[in-house]
Amino acid sequence: MEEAILPNQTSVSYFRLRGLSTNQKVQMTVFAIFLIFYILTLMGNILIVITIIYDRRLHTPMYFFLSNLSFIDVCHSTVTVPKMLVDTWSEKKLISFDACVVQMFFLHLFACTEIFLLTVMAYDRYVAICNPLHYMTVMNWKVCVLLAAALWTGGTIHSVALTSLTIKLPYCGPHEIDNFFCDVPQVIKLACTDTRIIEILIVSNSGLISVVCFVVLVVSYAVILVSLRKRISAGRRKALSTCAAHLTVVTLFLGHCIFIYSRPSTSLPEDKVVSVFFTAVTPLLNPIIYTLRNEDMKNALSKLTRARGTHNEKK
């Protein structure tokens, strides 16, 4: 005799991911591109963290937060990309219910933490550019550690709340997710109950966080740009370069969050394209933007490379 399904108990043990395409040639192309992006993401971001730890000149609040950003990008990319790479070689593309929940939890943990971190980094640049004489007083190490702890705590609370809402819903089929990873909007559409209240909560949670942080960031950089009008040309160029790098990351990252989480859970053709940028492209931008456009990072990398070469010669 089959067991009765209790309220709020799921009868779905796995989900099927549709992926990006069903065409085998397209899937192989996708596999190659994503693999290259993932390897570059790991190498670039890990190199940034190692360089910042190695070079004492980079032991400043700005680079402390940048190392956190690189660490988050490695974790964020690892949550979805390896599973997607494996699925390109599989026809079924299955993911267990528990694995799906874990993926959603860490996806939102790292995404929300990164949103808060980008906001903190904007505040850091605001203090450095608009109030440079008091920068080390305002952004001392105690404040930096407290801010880091706060943004990780905020990301955890957000992720726990959102995942808890999702797993409490009953799931009894269908079990196909129209994406290459599990995310809350796609999963709750498969629930065997009315999810309108949950969708409103998602919009008021994830959507509101994304929009508010984006507005705060835009206002912060607008104030910085106004302040830069009074600066000398050399200092202005360096500050503008830093702000432009931050704005590029912010626009691409928060653009996805606003697009996905600020509307009801309806599928659009653009969702997968936006998700590709969110999971694979944006985490790769940080090594490119913050390394190739930053003289301090380039000098530190050169120093690290020379030290590594000298060490190998001694061996």
UniProtKB/TrEMBL annotation:
* Annotated membrane topology: Multi-pass membrane protein
Q: Which GO terms describe its biological process?
A: detection of chemical stimulus involved in sensory perception of smell
Residues in coiled coil: none
Q: Which PANTHER family match?
A: OLFACTORY RECEPTOR
Organism the protein comes from: Monodelphis domestica
Q: Name one molecular function that GO assigns to this entry.
A: G protein-coupled receptor activity
Protein name per its UniProtKB record: Olfactory receptor
Specify whether Transmembrane helix is a keyword of the entry.
yes
Q: Which SUPFAM superfamilies match?
A: Family A G protein-coupled receptor-like
Provide GO CC annotations from the record.
membrane; plasma membrane
Q: What is the lineage of its organism?
A: Eukaryota, Metazoa, Chordata, Craniata, Vertebrata
Q: Which residues form the G-protein coupled receptors family 1 profile domain?
A: 44-290
Give the location in the cell. Cell membrane; Membrane
User: Does the keyword Chaperone belong to this entry?
Assistant: no
Q: Which UniProt keywords apply?
A: Cell membrane, G-protein coupled receptor, Membrane, Olfaction, Receptor, Sensory transduction, Transducer, Transmembrane, Transmembrane helix
InterPro entries, per database record: GPCR_Rhodpsn, GPCR_Rhodpsn_7TM, Olfact_rcpt, Olfactory_Receptors
